[in-house]
Specification:
single chain, Rossmann fold, 3 domains, six-stranded parallel β-sheet, 20 strands, globular
């Protein structure tokens, strides 16, 4: 007979779990005791459950294996809600484990008790309360299977205190071997025919294409055909953005140079499209044809109704199309490439502005020049995300981690910490606004305790800058969105990290190089000038792209 909490840990080990991120409570103590005897799983104690969830989700994003986070009942579980939505909408495999009071005999009434299973239903792919130790292997296997299969997302298991203390003769289940189905040959033929007969085809690479083999097949396909490609924000890095056929990232909803490239196409191949992202184009009856390449059929609405659907493993579908297609010498990409040249020229005209506080285009340029090819930047959520999505060239998959699904503030630092754990030999930088940083800044202690190597770049404008920009754009007065900040240098030092304050644009570059090359946790307080956001992003881009 095996104690249930021991069996639970054995099942986690069978799944290959390396870390459990979390804040344990009284109802987790049996599980915690069992974890203390595991030689294969490391408990990562965080200072808030939300950060634990963000770290678990990011682990899943990098590895494709479900990251695991742990919390107690009631307030511990509710603190995981934002992270659950982050993983679910963002397509990141994650398992949440929460405790609960005894379900068969309790002497504490309803103290701290919520229906956590019901709460997690709209936020996850699977949620289940364990009522018997014998069911632990099958329920955990199901939770991992569902978290990791397409589209990846969040799952949840509740382990009540009395069930954790039971005994069972059950043993862990082995992971199954699963192959995704390949796309139908007739759909491949239809796609190839449409491509070869198009005048100006273009590829749109979305979140669902961010898989290792899909990235490899897309590089081969683009290398053979030369067809221009753009990405959504969550598609950044799937294909090397230094390739001459790259025409931009659809960071803005409309009115950017990349939208001119899309408008020049008569056929759009939409690869890994996920409705969770704002669409980079809207269909109309007389517009370009669309080929939908995904593991799932298209969700049709008034502005998205693809004429051809290629459904199955995306990497295999791209390989089949690549093998069958014969590049058409009559393809005309001139308008798309001209729009890209105009964007590059516009960026070059403003990125050299070394004013202080730092100008966002110059900031992006400096970070790109300092970060190595395999370096990872982890963006929190703010207006700077648009500048980085547009202007920071991604060379490899998962080197620009941003959230264009839930778009939650507070994820930048935890995602950087998880990245530094998964890739300890790579350079990692969290880029956060002062607002987003303060939402999980307590995890600086966790990063220092774990002896991680990372830089936290805090963009300091003393306000919720994204909303302030929107406020200006909508014609409202500047009101209600400014605040004070602590001394970030002293704040970092109080946690045992190194703190710095940029005094000029040139000094910022020196600090970026120093923190990149020096082990440990570093924070750079960087004043930023957002005064031209509206003029550039909403006025100049629309006019200049229209004229390109």
């Amino acid at each position: 007979m095996t104690k249930a909490s021991d069996l639970f840990v054995q099942c986690l080990e069978e799944e290959g779990v390396e870390y459990i991120f979390g804040v344990p409570g009284e109802e987790n103590l049996d599980l915690l005791d069992s974890l203390s005897r595991s030689t294969r799983i490391r408990l990562i104690l965080t200072r808030h459950e939300q950060a634990a969830g963000f770290m678990a989700a990011t682990y899943g994003r990098h590895t494709g294996k479900a990251g695991v986070c742990l919390a107690t009942l009631g307030p511990g579980a509710t603190n995981l809600v934002t992270a659950a939505a982050y993983a679910q909408l963002g397509g990141m495999p994650m398992l949440m484990v929460t405790g609960q009071k005894p379900i068969k005999k309790s002497k504490q009434g309803r103290f701290q008790i919520l229906d956590v299973v019901d709460m997690m239903k709209p936020l996850s792919k699977f949620t289940h309360q364990l009522a018997s130790a014998d069911n632990i292997p099958s329920r955990l296997r199901e939770a991992f299977r569902l978290a990791e299969e397409e589209k990846p997302g969040a799952t949840h298991i509740e382990l009540p205190e009395d069930v954790a203390d039971e005994s069972s003769r059950s043993i862990p289940l082995k992971r199954s071997q699963v192959r995704r189905p390949s796309a139908d040959v007739k759909s491949i033929r239809a796609a190839v025919h449409a491509l070869q007969n198009a005048r100006s085809p273009i590829l749109v690479i979305g979140a669902g294409a961010n898989r290792t083999m899909t990235s490899r097949m897309l590089h081969q396909f683009i290398g053979k055909t030369g067809i221009p490609f753009l990405t959504t924000q969550l598609g950044k890095g799937v294909v090397d953005e230094r390739l001459p056929s790259f025409v931009g990232c659809a960071a803005m909803s409309a009115g950017d140079f990349v939208h001119r490239a899309i408008e020049a196409a008569d056929l759009i191949v939409n690869i890994g499209h996920d409705v969770i992202e704002k669409p980079p184009f809207f269909m109309d009856a007389n517009g370009a044809q669309v080929i939908h390449v995904s593991t799932r059929t298209a969700e049709v609405d008034p502005v998205y109704f693809p004429q051809i659907e290629v459904i199955g493993d995306i990497a295999n579908a791209i390989w089949q199309i690549k093998e069958a297609i014969v590049p058409n010498e009559a393809w005309d990409f001139s308008a798309m490439l001209a729009a890209r040249r105009a964007e590059v020229a516009h960026t070059a005209s403003i990125s050299g502005d070394a004013r202080f506080p730092v100008f966002p285009p110059h900031l992006v340029e400096q970070v790109r020049e300092v970060m190595p090819e395999d370096g990872i930047i982890c963006l929190d959520n703010g207006v700077y995300k648009l500048w980085f999505a547009r202007g920071y060239a991604a060379y490899r998959p998962n080197t620009v981690l941003l959230d264009n699904a839930l778009a939650s503030m507070g994820a930048g630092l935890p995602s950087a910490m998880a990245s530094a754990m998964v890739y300890p030999d790579r350079k990692v930088m969290a880029i956060c606004g002062d607002g987003g940083f303060m939402m999980n800044s307590q995890e600086m202690e966790t990063a220092v305790r774990l002896k991680l190597n990372l830089t936290v770049l805090v963009l300091n404008d003393g306000s919720y800058g994204m909303i302030r920009w929107k406020q200006e754009d909508m014609g409202f007065k500047d009101w209600g969105l400014t605040y004070g900040n602590p001394d970030f240098v002293k704040y970092a030092e109080s946690y045992g990290a190194s703190g710095y304050r940029a005094e000029s644009a040139e000094h910022l570059r020196q600090l970026l190089v120093h923190t990149r090359d020096t082990p440990g946790v570093h924070l750079i307080d960087c004043p930023v000038d957002y005064s031209e956001n509206h003029q550039i992003l909403h006025v100049d881009l629309k006019q200049m792209s229209k004229d390109s």
